[in-house]
């Protein structure tokens, strides 16, 4: 295991590098009502590029916990409170492996009750959608399902670089991998509708707000091509995609492509006209409530079904 996660909210533990983890547990809220009632299922968060779990995905953790789920997340290397050069993704597959290692370790050491231990879901936002799909590929039978929020699952045809450009980028990454050189528009304004949330992101020292580093951009390009060419049609787990119709960060038409291409028999796509990229945190309170009603209803239905993922941890 390349890294290890803490077992408590926001704890950090030493490994090859220090990883910050976060958890939200519903047991204390239920203690007075039903001391023996376990969480409905385990939910594991995969955050987006340049953000983290403790603040930007706190609302997701809290809402799912109130709905009866035990929720876990970790900050990737170079993100949030974890070690590493901020905003730097030197190896996307290593990032996926870190998530897989940590999530499996939680299942192994937590929640002796088999009824809900066997039900485990991924929730991936933006780049975290690609992380979730790749974590699923690592253990195809381990996961009960996934919720993909405005996932990064393919490069739009008009944005696809020429193979010669890809080769040049690959060569440059070996020389200046951490160089903040890739030009981008202001993603915060495009992603978050509410000014209050924009201000929170800009004021959060654990969110990376500079230009993407060269190797990071190359890794994101490489993983997008991998997902498009090798994974979209092989996705077999039950999934829900939620995507804003006015998203300018990840293209909702590409979520439609994932929905159409996936081998899953249980798949749902919900598009929200007029909503932007940050569906679970950057929209108006009413819009966020609508999105979470759909997410929780989907999770509740699959958490109450018989059986569940019984893959090897």
UniProtKB/TrEMBL annotation:
Lineage per the UniProt record: Eukaryota, Viridiplantae, Streptophyta, Embryophyta, Tracheophyta
Protein source organism: Panicum miliaceum (Proso millet)
The name this protein goes by in its record: Caffeoylshikimate esterase-like
Domain of life: Eukaryota
Serine aminopeptidase S33 domain boundaries: 38-280
Pfam families cross-referenced by the UniProt entry: Hydrolase_4 (PF12146)
């Amino acid at each position: 295991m390349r890294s290890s996660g803490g077992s408590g909210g926001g704890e950090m533990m030493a490994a090859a590098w220090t990883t910050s983890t976060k958890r939200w547990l519903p047991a204390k809220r239920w203690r007075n009502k039903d001391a023996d009632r376990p969480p409905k299922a385990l939910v594991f968060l995969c955050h987006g590029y340049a953000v983290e779990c403790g603040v930007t995905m706190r609302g997701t953790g809290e809402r799912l916990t109130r709905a009866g789920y035990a929720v876990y997340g970790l900050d990737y290397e170079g993100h949030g409170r974890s070690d590493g050069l901020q905003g730097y993704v030197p190896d996307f597959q290593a990032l996926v492996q870190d998530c897989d290692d940590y999530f499996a370790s939680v299942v192994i050491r937590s929640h002796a009750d088999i009824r809900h231990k066997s039900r485990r879901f991924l929730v991936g936002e933006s780049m975290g959608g690609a992380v979730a799909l790749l974590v699923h590929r690592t253990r195809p039978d381990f996961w009960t399902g996934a919720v993909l929020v405005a996932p990064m699952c393919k490069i739009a045809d008009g944005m696809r670089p020429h193979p010669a450009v890809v080769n040049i980028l690959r060569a440059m990454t070996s020389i200046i991998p951490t160089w903040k050189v890739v030009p981008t528009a202001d993603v915060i304004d495009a992603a978050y509708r509410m000014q209050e949330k924009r201000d929170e992101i800009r004021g959060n020292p654990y969110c990376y707000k500079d230009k993407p580093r060269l190797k990071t951009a190359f890794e994101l390009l490489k993983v997008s091509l991998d997902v498009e060419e090798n994974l979209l049609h092989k996705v077999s787990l039950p999934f829900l995609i939620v995507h804003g119709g006015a998203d300018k960060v990840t293209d909702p038409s590409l979520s439609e492509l994932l929905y159409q291409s996936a081998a899953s028999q249980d798949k749902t796509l919900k598009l929200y006209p007029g909503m932007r990229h940050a569906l679970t945190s950057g929209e108006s309170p009413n819009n966020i409530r609508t999105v979470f009603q759909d997410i929780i209803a989907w999770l509740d239905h699959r958490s109450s079904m018989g059986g569940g993922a019984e893959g090897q941890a």
